[in-house]
Specification:
heterodimer; A: 430 residues; alpha/beta; Rossmann fold; Dimethylsulfoxide Reductase, domain 2; 5-stranded parallel sheet; 18 helices; 21 strands; 37% helix; 21% strand; globular; B: 257 residues; 2 domains; 18 strands; elongated
């Protein structure tokens, strides 16, 4: 049995880089330091063995060469192809995807548009007062979790960076670091909070506005209760935030996807901005997929826009609400689709899934998913972090090299996409 | 006077969006001009999408009247950068109709899709049906939306109507959705029906709600009753998340407490 240390976990945006894997006969048999979700991914079974294609409603096994030719044909025939997913693969593959989208004249979008897309829209309006997770771990004496439940969704976030982590500049970090949780219901995370603010659904904007008004000395005008939160608690929380030495606000989809969406996040950023007149305060989105931040980085540096980039006219156009995958699918505006490392059939609204069913769809994914059932072609690939390697970005924007643990015969996402791209260049005479 | 009639042909893939920013009165003044539109990733001639009929002559954009007939609900960017003349749309129109418009008139007899009159500077848009989200708003990340002109919507408007409004006037005769006039800086937004959470983060300008404003934000100060055209309204100043230089008049309001 072989033991490999300091592996990076390819599950959530925490990208824990202290995982130990035990390998036996070329297979991962156990993990250490990993959370339950990461463990399940490392030990995942039921990989698709070879490419499959739907012929007359039945799945047929095909070779990689055939699969690549079919994929090229489907994408080149389309007038408005949609290339979606990308958060479950490494940066190098994302680069090829953007190049491919440019010569196809398609729309490329990542899962950002259904999670923290609104955060980015807000950041484009008022900026991002952010910092690395290392800063939070070593300095922050006040943590706010707003609309997120890290104990269940980012299980090691609190032990690595906040509540349960030691801080270099903090004495007795566990006792002296205060945690405020804001949510619409009690959660595992709210149970360990020093202060729990329970908001009525859709009330985030009003509560943030009230906190901002209190910070500006306008507390007198705030009514006794705002969206289920008492004025006394609002004043107390504003005071906690103002008097801390270093505060860090983390927020999740509970804020970005609640009524008001990006304007909620904008209000949160401006709240943090106001707090910086009194103390040091930062804000970090709790990114979900392990490399969703990477997808934003890659698209930004290659096209100028972080997601939902429409290349139909040969130049990049960006307008979430118009060029985002859900909107394009719901309006039935695309006529072919390629999904890379994502499972939209499990997560998208019904009308979008219907459109995925009705158009030719290619899936590039190691596993069988809900999306497989609607696909016309699936190409299995290696899993980054297990039998493929590449670059990923942590939720705070720090790039990490995700190493591979074992060798396999599966090609990586980069290899498959590059082969598809090369044939496209040849067909187009470029 | 020049009359241009554009009748939408039956489309093979009817849901694919068509971008036709070339449809402005000024462009039809030049008889030699080629008109290109985009359908997905294919560049087509205007005649691939429309039956085009042109009668009469014109010396300036003001003398040109364009009529769009048939199903134009997927045609985007009609009247973008329009500076004079008239466009009549007999049915529904796609997104971004009248973007950056500075003069002239667009009359939509059906419904308008999102971003109607985005970043408009002048001129007038009348929509007889409903308008979707972001009527008279700004672009992503932009500080200022509509700066001048008038948008009149006879039906309802979607969410974020008049977002970052910085001048001009928007009148919505029906209801507006969530957050009309959010981040408004200047200009006037009138809603004859109901809406929710008007004018969050208001930095200036004026909003009038003649129905009920639901989930009214607590950071606006009640300044007492007044009247507008014999209607009793309550005046609010705000938003006190910033300096509170804006004004909202509402007939009824409800808080989320």
């Amino acid at each position: 049995m072989q033991e490999i240390k300091d592996m990076v976990c390819p599950f959530c945006g925490c990208l824990c880089d202290d995982v130990t894997l035990e390998i036996e006969n070329g297979e991962i048999v156990a993990t250490d330091n990993c959370c339950a979700i990461g463990n399940a991914k490392f030990l995942g079974k039921n990989r698709l063995k070879n490419p499959i294609k739907k012929v007359d409603g039945k799945w047929v096994d095909i070779t990689y060469d055939e699969a690549i030719d079919t994929a090229v044909d489907i994408l080149l025939d389309a007038d408005r192809p949609l290339l979606f997913g990308w958060s479950g693969t490494h940066g190098e593959a994302q680069c090829v995807g953007v190049h491919m989208n440019e010569i196809l004249g398609g729309v490329i979008d990542s899962t950002t548009s259904v999670c923290h897309g609104p955060s980015i829209l807000a950041i484009q309006e008022v900026g991002h007062p952010g910092c690395t997770l290392g800063q939070v771990k070593n300095r922050a004496d006040l943590i706010i979790y707003w609309g997120c439940n890290p104990i269940e969704a980012h299980p090691r976030h609190m032990s690595r960076y906040t509540t349960y982590a030691d801080g270099y500049f903090l004495d007795n970090a566990f006792r002296n670091r205060k945690v405020i949780v804001v949510d619409v219901r009690e959660t595992e995370t709210s149970n360990v909070a020093d202060e729990f603010i329970r908001i009525k659904p859709g009330g985030d904007y009003a509560v943030l506005s009230s906190l901002r008004a209190i910070l500006r000395g306008k507390g007198d005008m705030i009514p006794d209760s705002v969206a289920g939160v008492t004025k006394t608690q609002l004043i107390q929380v504003a005071e906690m935030c103002k008097t801390c030495k270093f505060g860090a606000l983390f927020f999740g989809v509970g804020l970005t996807m609640a009524k008001g969406k990006y304007k909620n996040v904008r209000n949160a950023i401006e709240f943090v901005d106001d707090l910086n007149r009194h103390t040091k305060f930062t804000l970090t989105p709790m990114r979900g997929h392990w490399n969703v931040y990477g997808a934003n980085e890659v698209m930004s540096w290659m096209t100028g826009y972080p997601y939902a980039v429409d290349f139909c006219r040969g130049v990049a156009f960006y307008n979430p609400g118009e060029t985002t995958a859900v909107d394009i699918l719901a309006r039935k505006e695309c006529d072919a689709c390629m999904i890379v490392g994502s499972d939209p059939a499990a997560h998208f609204p019904h009308s979008c899934v219907e459109q995925l069913r009705d158009i030719p769809m290619i899936v590039i994914d190691p596993f069988q998913t809900m999306t497989t059932t609607l696909a016309d072609l699936q190409i299995p690939v290696a899993v980054t972090g297990i039998d493929a390697e590449g670059t990923a970005y942590r939720m705070d924007g720090v790039p990490l090299k995700v190493k591979k643990a074992i060798d396999s015969d599966y090609p990586s996402d980069t290899e498959i996409l590059t082969r598809i791209y090369d044939i496209m260049l040849e067909v187009k005479g470029l | 006077m020049m009359r241009v009639i554009l009748e939408v042909k039956e489309q093979l893939k009817p849901n694919l969006p068509i971008e036709a920013e070339c449809i402005t009165p000024k462009n039809f003044l030049d008889p030699e001009r080629e008109f290109h539109v985009w359908k997905g990733n294919k560049e087509l001639d205007l005649t691939d999408i429309f039956h085009v009929r042109k009668d009469g002559n014109a010396k300036s954009a003001e003398q040109v009247e364009i009529t769009i007939r048939g199903d134009s609900s997927h045609i985007k960017r009609v009247g973008e950068y329009m500076d004079g003349g008239k466009i009549i749309i007999e049915h529904d129109i796609g997104m971004h109709c009248g973007n950056f418009m500075s003069g002239g008139l667009i009359e939509i007899r059906g419904n308008a899709d999102s971003w109607l009159g985005r970043e408009m500077h002048g001129g007038k848009i009348i929509c007889h049906g409903n308008a979707m989200d972001y009527a008279g708003s700004g672009y992503r990340g932009e500080k200022k939306g509509m700066r001048g002109g008038l948008i009149e919507i006879m039906g309802n408007a979607g969410d974020f109507a008049g977002e970052t409004l910085a001048g001009g006037e928007i009148i919505i005769h029906g209801n507006a959705g969530d957050m009309p006039g959010v981040d408004i800086k200047d200009g006037r937004l009138t809603i004859m029906g109901d809406c929710s959470r008007p004018c969050g983060n208001m930095a200036g300008g004026e909003c009038r709600v003649f129905g009920t404003a639901y989930d009214m934000l607590p950071t606006f100060r009640n300044e007492g009753p007044t009247t507008i055209d014999d209607v009793t309204v309550t005046r609010f100043s705000g938003d006190y998340t910033s300096r509170g230089l804006g004004t909202i008049y509402v007939v009824n309001c409800k808080y989320m407490d």
